[in-house]
Amino acid sequence: MKIKSISKSIGSYLFENKVMIAFAAVCLAAIILSGSPLSFIVDGVITRVGRNTFTVLALIIPVIAGLGLNFGMVIGAVAAQIALFWVVHWGYSGFGGMMLCVLLATPIAAFFGYLVGSLFNRMKGTEMIAGLILGYFADGLYQLLFLVIIGGVIPVNNPTLIISHGVGVKNTIDLSDNLKYSIDAIRMLDILTIAFYVVLAITVVKLILHLLKKYTLKRGDLIQFVIIAVLFAISYIPVVETFLFADRLVLLNAVTVGLIAVGVYQLYIIVQKKFIKKEPAFSIVKPLITIALCAGIYAATYIPELEAVLLTVKMSVLPFLLIAALCLFNQKILDTRLGQNMRTVGQSQSVALASGINVDQTRVIAMIISTVLASWGQLIYLQNIGTFATYGAHLQIAQFAIAALLVGGASVQKATNKQAIIGVILFHTLFIVAPQAGKNLFDNAQIGEYFRVFVSYGVIALSLAMHAWKIAEKKTGEPPQESSSLEVGRETSKEMNAS
Amino acid sequence: MKKLKTMLDKFGLPRLIIGLFFIVLLVTSLAIGFDPGVLFSDVLRRVLMFSILVLAMIPGVQSGIGMNFGISLGISAGLLGAVLAMEVSYLSSWTEKLGAGNPWLTLLLALAIGITLAAILGFVYGLLLNRVKGSEMTVSTYVGFSVIAFMNIVWLSLTFQNGELSWPLQGKGLRNTASLAGSFGGILSEPAVIQNTQPAGLKWIAFNVGGVSIPLGLILVFILCAFIIWLFLQSKAGIAMSAGGENPTFTLASGINVDRTRILGTVISTVFGAVGIIMYAQTYGFLQLYNAPLMMGFASVAAILIGGASVNRAAIPHVIIGTLLFQGILVTALPVVNVVIEIGTLPEVLRIIISNGIILYALSKAKGGSSS
Model-level pTM? Predict the structure, then answer.
């Protein structure tokens, strides 16, 4: 019986993740066909994950709020690029320049997001096609701005940016002297220092509020401060300081740190739930398996081939921290009232209305958040690429981000952080190896490139069709096949309980 | 005042703006001394070039699948028909044997292959669209994109002997744009081609009158296509199809198989897509492969919407008015732009803004009314 149920659960796991598994198989085949060295692939994937994941994660909130896949994300990228152009024109550079970009892009993106959200409220049910067309429409207006208005209406005297006859912005803007790597190349020591002062400031504010009796200081606040202070103090130890002085992290160290962090967190869960809260339903097995898995992976890093790869590949630090922060944000927002409202609106607008939620407002907020996050994502992307293709950089971002998310197993109605990350890794692995695989297989690298474009369109088409299919089936009253198979599963589990 | 407002609502603000814009552009281009004969010829040529692709929207809309963004399917079938016909004509050395008849045979063969492929693809596509009722436009857009991306791989893998089609030296893969000069390019629309190559009995197909070139052959083809559509919509099957598109539940109750009429509409739309792209290439003088047709569906949708169609009702006058306004603006904008500000890409920018703006407007009208 037990084996049967395990095989059944494996079966349902495979079925639920069929898109992801099929794609992983394609990736694996392409990797083998390409014959590219592992270090090349890993290096490429790490770079691309660092610069693209933020944008993909920006898609999750609209999905939760029932707006589907945000094809209108292009508009966030447009906001970022408008900000970037002016910052480059004014001659700011480095991290400060990037902060100025963020400062400029955020209100523009928020405003655009508000407009998009308001428009979507008028077109409920057709948000995705509207978003797609809106993206093209925005691209037209953006081209009008950059080709005609800048230089033509707004005088901009800058021969490095403006086409020689004085009207319109050049095709590409080189960022290598000003904003390239302005996020990637932040030293770990600086990140820690900034984090320390930010937490210090927050704690001080909270303390003052506590003394004014407007806020009660919690134990968590103090623990948080102590942790960051201890970390900050440790950073003064010479060995640690030299380690943190680098702006890139060797992948081996990153893996080690990550595994230790996961292990410690699992131990914390065990201690917290088993010994402090003493939850009876808590099973110790799962955390222990995770810890064992971490240990196993760590042991695997001693395999010479793997170790060599991990030692050669370096990764930037801040982008990954930002990605982690966004994952946390996506997770934590669901615990807030806003997040709950979004989820309710996403499940049923009529139910949400009946329970007194302002549906339209919630949807607009979701769009504002997504558009602002998309604009930040575009800034991360552009500073890593290092050249700003004025008329092309924004065109494909929604397309590729959505394809990546869907490859990870997400759908129009459900998307998680995990799916986003898996999707980005798989999708970009294919991107890296497809040209070489195409060359080896068909003697033509171009075929590989076209293949990956086909895959990105195809996976979206497939996903949209499957979603529409499900809805259409629901409407006609036939029970969808999946739910019936689920019911069968439930019955058998009941039988098992009885026996 | 109220009457004016309802009239404006009925006519549509964007249509009014676009119409006025077209007139302003027309007057300006004539005022700055642009040759009216050339301008008129250009407008006529461009409008006819796109007209059949726009016509292909009607069966789709009437059958209830909405705007057929997946027209790329028909376009790909037509292009495949054209390249196959050209290759066959090259291999069988018709050129020497038939002389002036060669382009005609190639064109007919291209149409025959294109229509057959489009009918098969349209049927399968119709089956898919019946499964995704309510989201046809979203799905068809991405199906259209996927088909174009897939065809990119096909174009790159085909090995043809015809030097006009395949890349020189490589021997594998087709060119981005293949010239139709020696083949059926301009055979229905270009006075120069007709007057130089065709026998005296066929000189009427395209000729010049007082500086205006009249592509009579192409006009006749358009009239024929429009007539076929009109005739079909008047027939029993056509009426059943339109009824199914308008009110599926009621039509189903009266014993008509709506799924079948939808498939019929999709097939006809796809077939006209194939004919449309062949006529487009014929007028343009070049076959554009790879990503060139990617956004053609959008242009067709925009044109018919400008003409006054909605996502659930479309007729032949919409096609004529819409294509005239939309393509007319793009043709007349170019000389005006060149004189006023020297930015050659501005018409392209205009095209993007107008076409997507009008689609967006139509979508907001279609859903905004029903949901609230």
Answer: 0.84
The SS3 call for residue A329 is helix
Tell me how far apart the alpha carbons of residues A77 and A69 are, in angstroms, rounded to a whole number: 16
Show the domain range for B285: 49-198+206-292
Instruction: Centre a 10 Å sphere on the Cβ of residue A189 and count the other Cβ atoms it contains.
Output: 18
* Shortest distance, CA B246 to any CA of chain A (angstroms): 18
CB contact under 8 A, B135 and A467: yes
* Residue from the list B142, B342, B356 with its beta carbon closest to the beta carbon of A464: B142
Phi, psi of A248 (to 5 degrees): -120, 150
Contacts of A435 in chain B (CB under 8 A): none
**Cβ–Cβ under 8 Å, residues B321 and B307:** yes
Q: How many CA atoms lie within 13 A of B333 on its CB side?
A: 19
The C-alpha of B136 sits at a distance from chain A's nearest C-alpha, in angstroms, of: 8
Task: Name every chain B residue with its beta carbon within 8 A of the beta carbon of A450.
Answer: 149, 152-153, 156
Residues of A in contact with B359 (CB under 8 A): 133
Contact status, residue B305 vs residue B134, Cβ threshold 8 Å: no
Q: How far apart are CA A179 and CA A171, in angstroms?
A: 17
**Could you read off the pLDDT tens digit of each residue along chain A, which spans 499 residues?**
556 677 777 777 777 777 788 888 888 888 888 888 888 898 899 999 999 999 999 999 999 998 988 988 999 999 999 999 999 999 888 888 999 999 999 999 999 999 999 999 988 878 888 898 899 999 999 999 998 888 888 888 888 888 887 788 888 888 888 888 888 888 888 888 888 888 888 888 888 888 887 777 777 778 888 888 888 888 888 888 888 877 788 888 888 888 888 888 888 888 887 777 777 777 778 888 888 888 888 888 888 888 888 888 888 888 998 999 999 999 989 889 999 999 999 888 888 888 888 999 999 999 999 999 999 999 999 999 988 998 988 888 888 898 889 888 888 888 899 999 999 998 899 888 888 888 888 777 788 788 878 888 888 888 788 778 877 777 665 443 333 333 333 333 333 333 3
Q: Is there a contact between B153 and A128 if contact means CB atoms under 8 Å apart?
A: no
Yes or no: say if B118 and B89 are a contact pair by the CB < 8 Å rule: no
List of domains in chain A: 37-186+317-429 (1.10.3470)
Find tokens 């409407």 and name the residue.
Answer: A475
**Closest Cβ opposite residue B353 in set A119, A144, A152:** A144
What domain count does chain B have?
Answer: 1
